[in-house]
């Protein structure tokens, strides 16, 4: 679910208590941007709590019933099944999902499909980068004049208002900076914001302090995912899809999904152009979809009975990608699109969403999805203002919501938008140390990833990492 203007407000406001004046951060288009990064690492992800899930959609009253779902543990609720979403302008060259060898999630794919794409030799890549760890225990809001405004009761206001934000204490977001930033590490001070901890967690650092993170928060910490190989469960190249299904919001137009005056178009199979509907699963062609257009990817395993929980009737219902240990890989470009001036013009994005949301109602009555109560979204690469070249990351979940709305946090550091050429990246969910790593990579996405390759991604700071 993407509400771009709301996300912009949150990204402005939910910043660390150290002033941006002490960092090399600039405001552009209503958003602060700090340092170019090669990786962003979210630590201490997961909490014990609940969200409200849809239990029935009533076409007669145009209303939805909800029931409480309890969540707990490492990465919760992002350990639940996720769908993968794309908004143009974007061209997808590769997509894949991996699980640790022997993981039960691998049973959902066809063994023969894993080797359907020829593999090539991998390349090891060592990065000389810096890592910043920032811990804060309060939230500072920066208004349009650059003035710090601290509040114990502030809540999100109208979209576009720069004096908005979420209130909670925060733990860590670690940003691995690009080599060009390592010469002057002080310029990166406080250039990250942080992810809200569970209600039971606590922090003893002083407001605005900067220190080395504990071992459990370090990208170099041990993890179960790095001790064995990872096997590809799903894979896509233009014109070929293995154990993954492309969908969009064209329900009722071309033989799949449904439409109603209450809830509009449901999800449907996407045509090979990504834009039209289809009556059966189609592999996406080599296409660049335009601004504001969206499609999504589910696994190739169809829901049966109540295996996916409640979902809207008469839709193509498929499982997402679940588990606390999983890797998503991408190769994509986001070319400039200045042909129009509509909503989200030239603002591409790639994000993960709790798969329950599109199976009920991604856009519309907020009571008809679990999103607003924190069932989980992770923005991987998102442009916040038209034409920007800076891709921001953010997490939205019930973690740190303090009983109000969905909480979360993100980084003001950014990846460079691949307007020409492509960006290759891995998103590693590491349940053993409650971290999520978003890392630019050079390696090829083979049918199996060795433990050394995954370890190199998780430890991408290398031995030269500087703890600020």
UniProtKB/TrEMBL annotation:
GO terms for molecular function: glucan endo-1,3-beta-D-glucosidase activity. Keywords: Cell wall biogenesis/degradation, Glycosidase, Hydrolase, Signal. GO terms for biological process: cell wall organization. It catalyses: Hydrolysis of (1->3)-beta-D-glucosidic linkages in (1->3)-beta-D-glucans. GO terms for cellular component: fungal-type cell wall. Its EC number is 3.2.1.39. It holds the Pfam family YJL171C_Tos1_C. The keyword Cell wall biogenesis/degradation applies. Residues 39-100 form the Cell wall protein YJL171C/Tos1 N-terminal domain. InterPro entries: YJL171C/Tos1_C, YJL171C/Tos1_N. Transmembrane segments: none annotated. Residues 1-23 form the signal peptide. Residues 180-229, 395-414 are annotated as: Disordered. Residues 228-457 form the Cell wall protein YJL171C/Tos1 C-terminal domain. Belongs to the PGA52 family. This is glucan endo-1,3-beta-D-glucosidase.
């Amino acid at each position: 679910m993407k509400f771009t203007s709301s996300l912009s407000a949150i990204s402005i406001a939910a910043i660390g208590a150290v002033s941006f004046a002490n960092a090399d951060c600039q405001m552009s288009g209503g958003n602060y941007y700090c340092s170019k990064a090669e990786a962003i690492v979210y630590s201490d992800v997961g909490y014990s709590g609940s969200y409200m899930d849809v239990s029935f959609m009533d076409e007669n009253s145009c209303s939805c019933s909800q029931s409480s779902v309890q969540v707990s543990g490492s990465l919760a609720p992002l350990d639940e099944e996720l769908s993968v979403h794309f908004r143009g302008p974007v061209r997808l060259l590769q997509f894949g999902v991996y699980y640790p060898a022997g993981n039960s999630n691998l049973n959902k794919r066809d063994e023969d499909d894993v080797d359907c794409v020829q593999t090539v030799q991998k390349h090891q890549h060592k990065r000389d980068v810096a890592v910043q760890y920032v811990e804060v225990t309060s939230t500072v809001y920066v208004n349009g004049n650059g003035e710090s405004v601290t509040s114990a009761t502030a809540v999100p206001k109208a979209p576009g208002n720069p004096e908005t934000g979420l209130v909670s204490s925060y733990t860590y977001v670690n940003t691995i900076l690009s080599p060009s930033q390592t010469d002057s590490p002080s310029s990166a001070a406080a250039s990250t914001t942080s992810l809200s901890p569970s209600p039971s967690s606590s922090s003893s650092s002083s407001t605005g302090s900067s220190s080395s993170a504990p071992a459990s928060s370090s990208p170099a910490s041990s993890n179960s995912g790095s001790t064995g190989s990872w096997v590809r469960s799903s894979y896509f190249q233009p014109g070929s899809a293995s154990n993954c299904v492309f969908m969009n919001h064209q329900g009722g137009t071309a033989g799949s999904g449904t439409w109603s005056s209450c809830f509009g178009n449901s999800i449907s199979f996407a045509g090979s152009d990504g834009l039209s509907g289809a009556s059966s699963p189609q592999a996406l062609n080599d296409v660049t979809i335009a601004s504001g257009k969206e499609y999504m990817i589910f696994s190739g395993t169809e829901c049966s009975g109540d295996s996916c929980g409640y979902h809207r009737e008469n839709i193509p219902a498929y499982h997402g990608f679940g588990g606390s240990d999983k890797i998503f890989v991408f190769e994509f470009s986001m070319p400039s699109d200045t042909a129009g001036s509509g909503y989200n013009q030239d603002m591409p994005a790639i994000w993960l969403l709790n798969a329950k949301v599109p199976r009920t109602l991604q856009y519309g009555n907020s009571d008809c999805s679990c999103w607003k109560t924190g069932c989980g979204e992770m923005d991987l690469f998102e442009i916040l203002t038209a034409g920007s070249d800076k891709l921001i990351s953010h997490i939205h979940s019930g973690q740190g919501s303090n009983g109000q709305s969905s909480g979360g946090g993100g980084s003001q550091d950014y990846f460079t938008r691949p307007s020409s050429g492509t960006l290759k990246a891995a998103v590693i969910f590491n349940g053993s140390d409650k971290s999520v790593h978003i890392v630019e990579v050079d390696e090829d996405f083979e049918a199996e990833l060795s433990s050394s390759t995954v370890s190199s991604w998780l430890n991408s700071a290398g031995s030269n990492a500087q703890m600020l």
